[in-house]
Amino acid sequence: MRLRRKPWIDEAIHDYDSHIILSGQENYKGKWREAFSHPERPLYMELGTGKGRFIAGMSEAHPDANFVGFEVQIGVIYYAAQKIFEAERDNAKVSLFDIAGIEEIVAPGEVDRFYINFCDPWPKAKHAKRRLTYHTFLDRYARLLKDNGEVHFKTDNEGLFMFSLEEFQNCGWELKNVTYDLHSTDLPNVKTEYEEKFSAKGQPIFRLEAVKPAATKEA
Length: 219
Fold this sequence. Notes:
transferase; EC 2.1.1.33; tRNA_(Gua-N-7)_MeTrfase_Trmb; Rossmann fold; eight-stranded mixed beta sheet; tRNA_methyltr_TrmB_bact; methyltransferase
């Protein structure tokens, strides 16, 4: 769902230029680590960062890693940039970009981990190719991840989760920490805004971690 465009954001967002990348992302390909003061740290990317509660929380919980969050809606990413700016997180940035073109701006083997949280389930079978856990997307992530790199995936949609389990397995990913009710476990967890809202209503949260297949072909 897209939020109604707020014209004032186009100007106000520049208050957070130190923590947001609005254009020229192709110039960062192979150089995302250099955007941070500690480029030697692991590089984690969130695909669809929303209003930023997750990336802000994760960057605080893991100060030894660098985080980049991608979001396609400027009216949403404004709030993410605001959160990490006000928290003075020097290990987190957000970028206005459609992740369908992720390979245009990220180099093979550049990323240590991808996070995918509560993406659009695209419930109709004819739209399966749009799901961020469809096998063509998984192949892209595998190319961009380092050896033994991981994808961490959370959703409240059981159908999407079962579909995703099958896609990961069919593509040769190793699965671990699979849970059908995340909040009943002791697994570390930083909630998204969406997660907080729906888990409060008793909705179980599904989660998995997937390790990149050992043999990954170049595009």
